[in-house]
Automatic annotation (TrEMBL):
The active site is at 179 (proton donor), 313 (proton acceptor). InterPro entries: Ald1_epimerase_CS (IPR018052), Aldose_1-epimerase (IPR015443), Aldose_1/G6P_1-epimerase (IPR008183), Gal_mutarotase_sf_dom (IPR011013), Galactose_mutarotase-like (IPR047215), GH-type_carb-bd (IPR014718). Keywords: Carbohydrate metabolism, Isomerase. GO terms for molecular function: aldose 1-epimerase activity; carbohydrate binding. NCBIfam families: PRK11055.1 (NF008277). Pathway: Carbohydrate metabolism; hexose metabolism. This is Aldose 1-epimerase. GO terms for biological process: galactose catabolic process via UDP-galactose, Leloir pathway; glucose metabolic process. It comes from Halalkalibacter okhensis. Beta-D-galactose binds at residues 179-181, 252. It catalyses: alpha-D-glucose = beta-D-glucose. The keyword Lipoprotein does not apply. Belongs to the aldose epimerase family. It is an enzyme of class 5 (isomerase).
Amino acid sequence: MKVTKGFFGTLNGKEVTAYTLSNSKGMEMTCLTYGGIITKLLTPDREGKREDVVLGFDRVEDYERNSPYFGAIVGRFAGRIRGAAFELEGKSYQLLKNDGENHLHGGKVGFSHVIWEAETFEEQDRVGVALHYVSQDGEEGYPGNLNVTVTYTLTEENELLVDYAATTDQTTIVNLTNHTYFNLSGDLKEDILDHELTIKSDEFLQLKSDLMPTGEKIRVDGTPFDFNNGKQIKEGATSVYEQNVLAGRGYDHPFMLNTNNDREIMLKDEKSGRVLMIETDEPCVVLYTGTQIEDTYKVKGVQARKYLGLCLETQGAPDSINQPQFPSPILRAGERYESRTRYVFGVE
């Protein structure tokens, strides 16, 4: 197992470094100091052929110009906040409106568009990189100095562990995730409509036309949102169900998980044989099927388009600061925010 370091580019006069983690089983992951972006992830198919299973770019300029959060760490708050505003301990906070009237994924810059500090580690059965960033009090409108560390760890068992940790000196809100777009066909040979997804979830959050949660939970029974026994993504893409249609004929929805750290999410691609299992301690996962990917650029030589990749964003519920029926995103001084998501790659 090893970690290698390389130059990826320069952004606003600052160098962007790429770190590549690799094991002896043929798995390799490359991440950037810019946005903590997972820019490449090589895994073998059932024939042993290693191919890239994530969307990304080869140049840092493309990430700044075209990227819909490909592979990035998203924060301080993943998802949307209604009206780009919230109240905390009797004080009102106004955030940037970067998604219509709402606030999305931490704002115009957010954690996805800054350069993180990095420190690597190598052990006998695991290697990794710890990324560190201090979000200043008032950044993007959020209160408190937030000290954040996100650690990527690759093991010999083809596991990618993503650990999030944060502390604050003032009461604030935190909801972190990773926005990697997966495509298990390998090197983007196919879109993701034939991928089969299983999610252990009996309820999803109803969305309005602006993709903001209404606060209502809908039972998945009898809808294209019932992934408990597995189904192909194309069922939602071809559905006339209102919630699929408003998401651009697909999904952009939070699913409330029935269980944690219990093989709760499985993604499969029959042609390649690749399987991705995801476990998390977060209360929900946002399934986004790439319905807003524009066709004005290329992704690793492939024309960008709808359904080229899908995201499985493990996180707290969007707008949870304004919707107290969901788990609270509040973090106070002296407390520690911690979360882990585990991705395991295999074949069938």
